[in-house]
Amino acid sequence: MPAASTQKQSRSRPTKGLTYADSGVSIEAGDKFVGSIGSLLRRTHGQRVIDNPGGFAGLLRLDYNEQLFKHNFKDPVLVACADGVGTKVHLAIELGMHDTVGIDLVAMNVNDLIVQGAEPLMFLDYIAVHKVEQEVLYSIVKGISDGCKLARCALIGGETAEMNDLYKPGDYDLAGFSVGVVELKRATNPLRVEPGDVVLGLESSGVHSNGYSLVRRVIEHAGLELKKTYADLDPERTLGEVLLTPTRIYVDSIVRLMRAYKVKKIVSGMAHITGGGMEGNLNRSLHDGVDAVIDENSWDVPSVFRFLQEKGGIEEAEMRRVFNMGIGYTLIVRPTFADAVARRLEKTGEKVHRIGKITKGKGRVRIKNRRPG
Question: Could you tell me the pTM of the whole model?
Answer without folding.
Answer: 0.87
